[in-house]
Amino acid sequence: MAEPLLKVRNLRTYFISKNSTVKAVDGVDFEVYPGKVLGIVGESGSGKSMTSLSVMRLVPGPQGKIVEGEILLEGQDLLQLSERAMRDVRGNRIGMIFQEPMSALNPVLKIGEQIGEVLVRHRKVTKAQAKKQAVALLRSVGFPRAEQIVDEYPHQLSGGMRQRAMIAMAMACEPSLLIADEPTTALDVTIQAQVLDLMRSLKEQNGTAILLITHDLGVVAQMADDVVVMYGGQVVEAASADEIFDHPLHPYTQALMASIPVIEEERERLQAIPGTVPSAADFPSGCRFAPRCALAEERCHEQMPELREISLAHAVRCLVVQGKTDRRENAT
Amino acid sequence: MAVQALHNKAKTGETKRKRVQSPWRLSLQRFMRNRLAVAGFFTLLVIIFVTVAAPLFTPYNPTAINIMNTNLPPSAAHPLGTDGSGYDNLARLLYGGRVDLTVAVAAALMTMLIGVIYGGISGFFGGWIDNLMMRFVDVMLNFPFIPFILALEAIFNTSGELILITVVSLTAWPGPARFMRGIFLQLREQDYVLGAVTIGASKWRIIFRHMLPNTISSLAVLVSMSVAGYVGLDAGLTFLGLGLPLTVPSWGGMLSQASNYIDMRTEPYSWIPPALMIILTILSVNFIGDGLRDAFDPQART
């Protein structure tokens, strides 16, 4: 396989205050390959958004801090860069889009000015050139009236249009990595499909790698090549998307899959995972999913499982699952 | 082909009719629909016009003493009579408006400038900087105002418009500063500010390009409200003898001079007009401020 574009190693992002240490991201590893989509899946509070902000080095200070780890973009550790050098990376080599298209555009600046700003900042073009390129970018994200849209203000666009404008802005400098944090959560289902199609075609045209943060397994199924499932600030399962959907191993992943409504099956109730994500301030001492886990054994509450590859390119953090495969291996 | 051309033509025609609706234009439209605010705006325009064009309405010099014509009742030559020093009351009233308005507007702009810079830095950077700066604001808010003015006037050994503007600016900025800090704290959490960070914009660019334009609506409201406040404050200080010297024509000064038992009763023409002017100015500026606030209210987007 090709060299990974983004390689995150043992990332730990903590929120440290006088009274407590909140381990929002606690030893996360993953890779994103050029032209591929990595989906990070998890419930609210699983640390997935904090992981994406860490990659951009935008963890809200002064409490939030990346205390350990490496974030290698094309082999260069972003955590070692100066703030000034990091600003040259943001918007240029890494683009980012957010969940709320309604508030992510500045209400007093024209669409064209906002897209042009990225180009002026990183490509050193004149304002007139930037505007011309903004028109081309808007057309490439599917605006037929791009010439007019550049001179319009965000309040004149619908939510889906704003999200596409955001994508145009994030893609302006043709970054090698696009971070999309819940890009479709706030949109209607029909618009969701449009935005996902757009992201997919941009990926295919430009070879952009996408780090897709979402809690929506449907979106992951459509988009992702590889999947990382996060729980309690840790990766609990990592595999290719096909593998995850065909053979989910971690009890948490299985429970997530079971909670998707299936239209062909008639069920009395949707299956939900009992309980909620534990607060990052006081995790259980053993496996963090153990209190909600149907398979949990006694040792699960005491011993923290390692993330271990148990079959080819399929890693899981679960003592029970690991134990089963170990026994199978011993038997053969 | 012809159909396509026709189609294009129809499209461009449509865009010509539809002007770009900037947020400012929308706010202006909403302001124009507010009758009270528009009335206030035109009243203020008239007041500004008659004071700026004062020489057109009166031939007299507001600072020329004429001891032959003291305490005259209203007449064709002196529509509002003359006061105890022989000053023409109408001339004092019109020229005095210049002074009052200049002082109020200049002081409002000065406090706003200090407030934006101080509050902006405090709110944007937050943390201990914010804490330290806001504690100083607390001290300043509790500062005894009138003794401070007396002290300053004693130090500079003079009184006049400049001193008054300086004094008001130096003492009244903490309010606007605290207000602007709140606005900046709020803006800092906006997604589009985070968005600007993610495209690699620098701190100063974010402050000036992304945050400051979004404070203009609040600023406009605050400036108009402070102008109203300072017209009253100037008049009040002058009335107390702490503001402008009586040689400078001003509304507060006219009130002050008429504030004795005899003049109040026998010469209403000497004090009612400046009092009316003060009230009219404050009211119209307040109406404008209210109108601006409603016009900029994001909840009322139509």
Automatic annotation (TrEMBL), chain A:
<feature type="domain" description="ABC transporter">
    <location>
        <begin position="6"/>
        <end position="257"/>
    </location>
</feature>
<dbReference type="InterPro" id="IPR003439">
    <property type="entry name" value="ABC_transporter-like_ATP-bd"/>
</dbReference>
<dbReference type="InterPro" id="IPR017871">
    <property type="entry name" value="ABC_transporter-like_CS"/>
</dbReference>
<keyword id="KW-0813">Transport</keyword>
<dbReference type="GO" id="GO:0005886">
    <property type="term" value="C:plasma membrane"/>
</dbReference>
<dbReference type="Pfam" id="PF00005">
    <property type="entry name" value="ABC_tran"/>
</dbReference>
<keyword id="KW-0067">ATP-binding</keyword>
<comment type="similarity">
    <text>Belongs to the ABC transporter superfamily.</text>
</comment>
<keyword id="KW-0472">Membrane</keyword>
<dbReference type="InterPro" id="IPR013563">
    <property type="entry name" value="Oligopep_ABC_C"/>
</dbReference>
<dbReference type="InterPro" id="IPR050388">
    <property type="entry name" value="ABC_Ni/Peptide_Import"/>
</dbReference>
<dbReference type="InterPro" id="IPR027417">
    <property type="entry name" value="P-loop_NTPase"/>
</dbReference>
<protein>
    <submittedName>
        <fullName>Peptide ABC transporter ATP-binding protein</fullName>
    </submittedName>
</protein>
<keyword id="KW-0547">Nucleotide-binding</keyword>
<dbReference type="InterPro" id="IPR003593">
    <property type="entry name" value="AAA+_ATPase"/>
</dbReference>
<dbReference type="GO" id="GO:0015833">
    <property type="term" value="P:peptide transport"/>
</dbReference>
<dbReference type="GO" id="GO:0005524">
    <property type="term" value="F:ATP binding"/>
</dbReference>
<keyword id="KW-1003">Cell membrane</keyword>
<dbReference type="GO" id="GO:0016887">
    <property type="term" value="F:ATP hydrolysis activity"/>
</dbReference>
<dbReference type="Pfam" id="PF08352">
    <property type="entry name" value="oligo_HPY"/>
</dbReference>
Automatic annotation (TrEMBL), chain B:
<dbReference type="InterPro" id="IPR000515">
    <property type="entry name" value="MetI-like"/>
</dbReference>
<keyword id="KW-0812">Transmembrane</keyword>
<dbReference type="Pfam" id="PF00528">
    <property type="entry name" value="BPD_transp_1"/>
</dbReference>
<protein>
    <recommendedName>
        <fullName>ABC transmembrane type-1 domain-containing protein</fullName>
    </recommendedName>
</protein>
<dbReference type="GO" id="GO:0055085">
    <property type="term" value="P:transmembrane transport"/>
</dbReference>
<feature type="transmembrane region" description="Helical">
    <location>
        <begin position="103"/>
        <end position="129"/>
    </location>
</feature>
<keyword id="KW-0472">Membrane</keyword>
<comment type="similarity">
    <text>Belongs to the binding-protein-dependent transport system permease family.</text>
</comment>
<feature type="transmembrane region" description="Helical">
    <location>
        <begin position="136"/>
        <end position="156"/>
    </location>
</feature>
<dbReference type="InterPro" id="IPR035906">
    <property type="entry name" value="MetI-like_sf"/>
</dbReference>
<feature type="transmembrane region" description="Helical">
    <location>
        <begin position="36"/>
        <end position="57"/>
    </location>
</feature>
<feature type="transmembrane region" description="Helical">
    <location>
        <begin position="211"/>
        <end position="231"/>
    </location>
</feature>
<dbReference type="InterPro" id="IPR050366">
    <property type="entry name" value="BP-dependent_transpt_permease"/>
</dbReference>
<feature type="domain" description="ABC transmembrane type-1">
    <location>
        <begin position="97"/>
        <end position="289"/>
    </location>
</feature>
<dbReference type="InterPro" id="IPR025966">
    <property type="entry name" value="OppC_N"/>
</dbReference>
<feature type="transmembrane region" description="Helical">
    <location>
        <begin position="162"/>
        <end position="180"/>
    </location>
</feature>
<keyword id="KW-1003">Cell membrane</keyword>
<keyword id="KW-0813">Transport</keyword>
<dbReference type="InterPro" id="IPR053523">
    <property type="entry name" value="Oligopeptide_permease_AppC"/>
</dbReference>
<keyword id="KW-1133">Transmembrane helix</keyword>
<feature type="transmembrane region" description="Helical">
    <location>
        <begin position="268"/>
        <end position="288"/>
    </location>
</feature>
<feature type="transmembrane region" description="Helical">
    <location>
        <begin position="237"/>
        <end position="256"/>
    </location>
</feature>
